[in-house]
Structure formats: structure tokens, C-alpha cells
Specification:
Structural class: alpha+beta
Low-confidence stretches: 274-285
Number of helices: 11
Mean pLDDT: 93
Radius of gyration: 19 Å
Distance between the termini: 10 Å
Shape: globular
CATH class of the largest domain: Alpha Beta
Largest sheet: 7 strands, mixed
CATH topology of the largest domain: Phosphoribosyl-aminoimidazole Synthetase, Chain A, domain 2
CATH superfamily of the largest domain: PurM-like C-terminal domain
Length: 303
Amino acid sequence: MDERTALGLLGDRLSAAGDDAAVLDGQVVTTDMLHDRTDFPDGTTRYTAGWRAVGASLSDVAAMGADATAAVAVYAAPAFDETELADFVDGASEVCEAVGAEYVGGDLDHHEEFTVATTALGDTDEPVPRSGARVGDAVCVTGTLGRSGAALRLFERGAVERANDLFRFEPRVAAGRALAGRATAMMDSSDGLARSLHQIAEASDCGVAVESPLPVDPVVDDVADDADDRLELGAHFGEDFELVCTVPEAALPGVRADLSVELTRVGTVVEREAGSASGRRGQAAGAPVTLDGDPLADRGYTH
């Protein structure tokens, strides 16, 4: 059973589950776990690990349209090295500072594999779920896609300094706050653009018609083998932690004016018509999510 199947099983038992974070009386809370062998390639510094692990939880707060307030982490490793531990805390603290939050500590444990569990808190009066997309809404994404996939290739090639730089993403907390109250659905792209769109389509009972070009980061062109590989890194690899959202078309100019990061329209929310054979705007072309009229596979980052 993979992570998504397990989450579906638990969702049947937990009525509040289903979004990037839980919301309790205006307080947002989310938690994540990252492991050395699956999340931190060889060459990942402890500073980058601290930034990325805490940033992943801050990204969930951003996806709810909330202000980030604080984060904590559990740091587990076979042994405690003074420099590594200090670097981790520096990375965790500085990613919090970047979004106006505070890193306030956590716990230490010995474990055979370097493992980090993080929790982030936030506040919002208008959380944005995944389930509010409406037909005709613009489908948008912040920033660029494919940076983490490119970073993994660079780690494999020994370009660790550049790879670490790419791994330290900026959680889109400010963008999430600007989108709150105007976006109808939102989540982060940690599972990849394609899978995120499928999740929004499922939660909102709609279809999504995506159109090229996608905002793939230029660094992807440095590592991709061909056009198919470029699409794989940009749409399916995931772990970029951008915001994927739906916005009423009339609100789009105002939203863009209020953001300090690029917001690219990649498609339109359409009716979920499983029998449709057309990729024209307003129809789902026989699949919940399409790219230029062809089905876009529900494939992405899976633990």
C-alpha cells in the first residue's frame, strides 16, 4: 500500500482530513516526516535538510491561505554531530524567518537513519480547501516547476552546491495569504502538478483542462534528456512546493497585482464529463485532467 492509498483509507475514518493542513478554530496545523534515503540525496547539507524539512510543513500552511506562526522539528540520527545539528537548526530557523514565522525547538532522538519530523502552525480566518473549484475558474501555479527534479539530477552528477541551492525553496506563505478569500481551491505541488490537479479535480468534482506551455524552470533544460523528460520533471516529479490554485477569471488580474511571485495560468476548470471526446475549453476530454486535449496521467511523488 503506497502513501496515497493509505491516506484514502484514513480519510474514510477522519472526517476532517483531506486538505494540506487541519484547521481548528482558526489555527492551522500540519506535520511531515522526511527520511535520509528517500528525501535527502547524498550531498544534501544539514542546513539544506533543516530548511527543506521545515519548509515542507510551512508550504502546507501556505496552501491553506494562512499566516505561518511557528514550527518545531524532531531531529533523529545515528549520532549527534555538533556542526550538523547547528547547521540543521540554522536552516530551520532561517526558512521560518523568511516567511515571518519562528522556529521554536523540538526534540532529539537516536535513530539508525537520519529522519526529521516537522510540525508547523498558522492562523487564518478564511482557509482555502481543495474542494471549492468551480467551472470556468482559471487554474494557476506560482513560480516555476521542476527545480527539485533538476536538483536530484545535479546531486547525482556531483554538482552538490547548485543542487543544494535548488533544494532550498521559499514557502509561498505570502502568496497564499494574498490568494485567501479569492482562490476557490488550493494546495501545494509537493506531489507534482499533475497529481495536485487530479486531487483538486476529485475533491471539487470537476475536470481540469491544462494547456501548454507549463512554467518549467529553465534549470530543467540543463538536465532533461528530451521533451518527454522535461515534462516528467515539470509536471510529475513534484517536491517543488509551489501553490496550485483555482481563481475566478475576473479576479485573476487583481490577484496577480498583489503577488510578489509570478502566477501562471495553466488551464481552466471544466465540467467532469467522462464521455467527452473533445479537449476544447469547457470539456474534460474523457479524463478528469488533460494537457492539450490528451489525458494527463495521475502520477507524481509517492512515498
